[in-house]
Every structure is written in C-alpha cells, then in structure tokens.
Amino acid sequence: MAVAEEGTFRGAADLLGYSQAAISQQIAALEAVVGAPVFDRPGGPRAVQLTPVGRAMLRHGQDILDRLDRALDEAMQTGAGTGGRLTIGTFQSVSVELLPQIVGRMRTEVPDLQMRAVEEDENEELLVAVQQGQLDLAFVAGPVSSPDLEVIELGVDPLLVVVPRGMGFDDKERAPLRDVMDVGLIGEHHGSSQSYVEEGIRSHGMAPRYVFRTNDNGAMQAMVRNGLGAAIMPQLAIQLDDPEVLVMPTDPPMPTRSILLAMPGGIRNSPAAEHFARVAKDVSIQRLDQPIVD
C-alpha cells in the first residue's frame, strides 16, 4: 500500500522507516505468494504502476489492515477488562431469573464488552464446551466436580413442589411426597434437572408418575395452575408470586441442588470473565436467598 501511494520503493521505504532493500524483499515475497507481479517496474525515476493483480491485492490490503487494527484494539480491551467478547453458557431458569440482572450490571460497568449466551439443558454439554474453550464460562447445576475446571458456588436452589390451590395441600406446611405422586406430575423431558428430580423421588422408595411433560418452566407452572397435576421444580424456576398455586417443600424433603459457575481451570481467565463471576455472585445471593411467597 505504501509503494502504491508513494509511487516508488524509495518513497515507501522513507514513509515506513525501512531500507529500500527491505521493501523490495517484502514485495518479492508477496509476489511469490500470489504467483504474479503486483507492480510494473518501468525503471529509472518513473513511478511503478499496479498490475491487475496488484490492484486486487490493494483492495484487500485495506480490509486486512482495518481488521488487524480491530483485532489489536479488541486484544487490548480484553487484556484490560474494558471490552472484548464473552460467551456464556446457561440453562433456562438461570437465563430467566439471574442472567438479565447480571448482564444489566455488566452493560453498565463494562459498556464495551460484547456478551453472547448459549443455552443448553445438559450440564455435560456446557462443561465440555468450557473445557474446549467454546465458552468462557457456564452456569451449571451441581453438584459438579472436575479437576479441569474452576467451579464457583453461587448458592443453593432447593427442589420444591408446586401444587394447585384447593387440592388438599392448602393447610400443610410440607407436601407429603406420596400424596404428590398420587396427584401425578408435570415434568420435563429427560435432562440434567429432570434426572435430579427423579433420583430424589426414587431415593425415598417411590416412582414418579407423569401426566404431562414439557421443558418450558412457565408451561409447567401453567399446567399446575389449571389443576392438571403437581410439579417438583427448582425454586429458581418457579414464579413464586403466583397466587393460584402453593409452593412448599416436600416430606420427606427432596435434595438441594447448587447453582455453580464453571470456568477454565489452570489458566488465566480474562478480566471480563473474572468481573462477570463477581457480578454473578452478587446477583445470585439476592435471588437465591429470596423467600418463598405463599
């Protein structure tokens, strides 16, 4: 580009602070790569002229330099924690109840950071994506143990039963689990969260009986609201202020899951990822400690 602008190899050398021999070597290397001359060299004091191949390369040259400038700028912002990109793994209840507040704070505190969320139902898919570098970090439901990951506990998320009002549970502080089984369950299709619910039920010597399945948390609660069955759901997935349902622990109690943030272990994470983790901890404490509303 400098040779084309100045018209001579000497002018390009003076502009860039190189020797004329260095400019000649770089042009020769470029021509070897593209397999054709990029300049016609008339010799003497006359200016060199771009060949058709040279004109094509010049058009791309500006795009390449612009992209390099953007790459360097993003690298500097990423290193400083003031920008760059962050790809976050998540699952439905976290996406609805935690992520909007976290992203809102991050947008205020790091306005030039670009964030993208990838949602999966299975823990394993999220954990593998973090290990392979496809995700910078990911929310998962615990317990989780992996020597390759740094796992941060954000809080506990108990499994609670959601039952319609007027079905015999209104005067109870805890819902007898066997009575819940008799009502029939609204559940999810197979996945990490559903497996955890079923393991908890079977640990008490009972077998779940489903009347309807959906992976949409709102649809599950709507089915309960309309008297079609009961649902055992993580507290984070429940609309706690719904006046048409009761939310309570079971008797015997279901196990409690943890909400975790998984990050690559053994490497230096970006300042933006570390910042995101701090904000996630602050937001999660407020939401996961929220009391159950009758």
Number of domains: 2
Mean pLDDT: 88
Rg, rounded, reads 30 Å
Low-confidence stretches: 290-294
**CATH-derived topology of the largest domain:** D-Maltodextrin-Binding Protein, domain 2
Number of helices: 11
E-strand count: 13
Helix content: 40-55%
Question: Which outline best applies?
Answer: rod-shaped
Strand content: 15-25%
Helices and strands, in order, run as HHHEEHEHHEHEEEHEHEHEEEEH
- Under CATH at level 1, the class of the largest domain stands as Alpha Beta
Helix-and-strand structural type: alpha/beta
Biggest sheet architecture: 7 strands, mixed
CATH architecture of the largest domain: 3-Layer(aba) Sandwich
How many angstroms does the end-to-end distance come to?
Answer: 71 Å
Task: Describe this protein with a few key phrases.
alpha/beta; Arc Repressor Mutant, subunit A; 294 residues; two-stranded antiparallel sheet; 7-stranded mixed beta sheet; 2 domains; D-Maltodextrin-Binding Protein, domain 2; rod-shaped; 11 helices
Topology:
Elements: H1 2-6, H2 9-16, H3 20-34, E1 39-40, E2 49-50, H4 52-80, E3 85-90, H5 92-97, H6 99-109, E4 114-119, H7 123-131, E5 137-142, E6 149-164, E7 175-176, H8 177-183, E8 185-187, H9 192-202, E9 210-213, H10 217-225, E10 231-234, E11 245-248, E12 250-251, E13 256-264, H11 271-288
Parallel strand pairs: 3-4, 3-5, 7-12, 8-9
Antiparallel strand pairs: 1-2, 5-13, 6-10, 6-11, 6-13
